[in-house]
Amino acid sequence: MSHHTNIDDARIRADFPTLHQQVYGQPLIYLDSAASSLKPQCVIDCLTNYYANEHSNVHRGVHYLSQRATDRYESARQRIAKFIGAPSERSIVFTRGTTEAINLVAGTYGRKYIQSGEEILTTVMEHHSNLVPWQLLAQERNAQLRVLDVSLAGTISVDTFVNQMNDRTRLIALGHVSNSLGTLHPVEEIIAEAHKRNIAVLLDGAQGLPHLHLDMQSLDCDFYCASGHKAYGPTGIGFLYAKENILEDLPPWHGGGDMIEEVRRTSSTWADIPHKFEAGTPNIAGVIGMATAIDYLDNIGMDVLREREEALLEYADREIRTVPGLEIVGTASEKIGVLSFLLEGHHPYDIGYELDQAGIAVRTGHHCTMPLMEYYGIPGTVRASFGAYNSREDVDALVARLKEIAAKSSTQKNPVEDQIPLSPPTDESIEARKAALLDDLEIFDDADERREYLIELGENLVALDTSLKTEENRIHGCLAMVWLCSTVENGRIYFQADSDALITRGMIALLIRLMDGQFPQSILKTDLFALIDEIGLPSLITARRKNGLNRMIERIQKEASLAESL
User: Fold this and answer.
1) What pLDDT digit, counting tens, does each position of 274-290 carry?
2) Which of 42, 368, 478, 485 is catalytic?
3) Residue 288 three-state SS
4) Per-residue pLDDT for 221 more than 90?
5) H-only helix segments in 144-283
6) Angle at 558 between CA 557 and CA 562, to 5 degrees
7) Once rounded to an integer, what is the mean pLDDT over residues 290-308?
8) In a 3-state reduction of DSSP, which class is residue 4?
9) pTM for the whole thing?
10) Quick check: 454 and 447 in contact, CB under 8 A?
């Protein structure tokens, strides 16, 4: 078995060109497949060939290219139906991905069958894509969304789920596999119990499709939603599987071309399923590429991939537990390809940054499961997620780097006297401070060195007293926890701030360096967003962190406005 696995490791890795590169001088180790998998060369070649030699619109032309594109497109539908064990390709509706598939069900089935006072049942573990659409629907229909807790291990009790079903429950929306913890849910038992009570079941299969042998006929769910990009296919493409009788019964979702039979001035009739739900020119290349990715998985064998993954996950679980201070979050006995964890004394974002510097790509944060993180009382986790191309060597590199991080001293210095106040003399204007800061940044050669400087600012930020870390002082909209408060002395405003993530501490420290001890009117007269752009801070952080930076600036402006009114 081990010899066979080693051969497969080398062969499979060779299929993924993204892995043939270095990051910060280190071989890339990609452990973020739950967010999006890498693409094999055959999928890349398929997309290139389609656009170079086969492109035309589908279903509308009688010429050769249109006919060929239509054949490829509809053959892909048949291929996907076969891969997931659907009884017919008529059950497969192409969407932009899992999110759109769930929204399609909410916008058609939900609006038709869920009435005021009725219930949708789900769990606190769901991806936002399988929670927010139901929130919106419940608000629109005056229905109730009931969100069930899970165990501390991250598992669902079938008995608890069954006990929550009642005569008002119309739909159960449940992930097949948890994207943040990797838990494989007992969906077969839940579906069987739900159907005894005439309750429909939707499964979010975004994490199921890449890892599991699927058979819709034996699974018997009413809806299954999945994405191509997590299963080695292109982005922006996915599908909804639904039972044919349900699709026949539902109204269209989007109106436009290709989903109609006849259009008159004031009314229309609809095309047969599944085309009734596919308005407009579809993602033809994406569909064909997704089918090519399915072929790739089938050629290796889903059972082979599952066996390899189980062995790798077992090895990773055992080895990562040797890291001092590490806690695994989500300890279900049945898991799929995910290890989520925390490291004592280190915020997940800071661990992600440290791993990235070693060429190891992981995901950090709440993983689009904020209610679950709130339920556990944690800011998020570090998530290492595995794909077909990962090996024990990848795990060894991850564990070795985590041990190095764990050996470092705490990122926050507790004794205040050992910390360096960052504020320049109060008589310096904001413009003067900006000029001095730009001079400091000039000595660095690249963005990586500037990011290190930002982290150093965070290390030297005076820690905020625990009594001030209140909800009133918290800045919402940041990926990490951030607190800020101010005092006014002799007409000048002074700020205190903190964050539980080091790079975020650096951002707020930089803002304080510019604003602390200024007259409130000076802050209000300054275009702080333009100022930060001139310094180049947004280029050093991710787009999501930029949103948090904007919230920090808005809070400083609010504090200055309140101070000005005193």
Assistant:
1) 999 999 999 999 999 99
2) 368
3) helix
4) yes
5) 158-164, 187-196, 216-219, 244-249
6) 115
7) 95
8) helix
9) 0.88
10) no
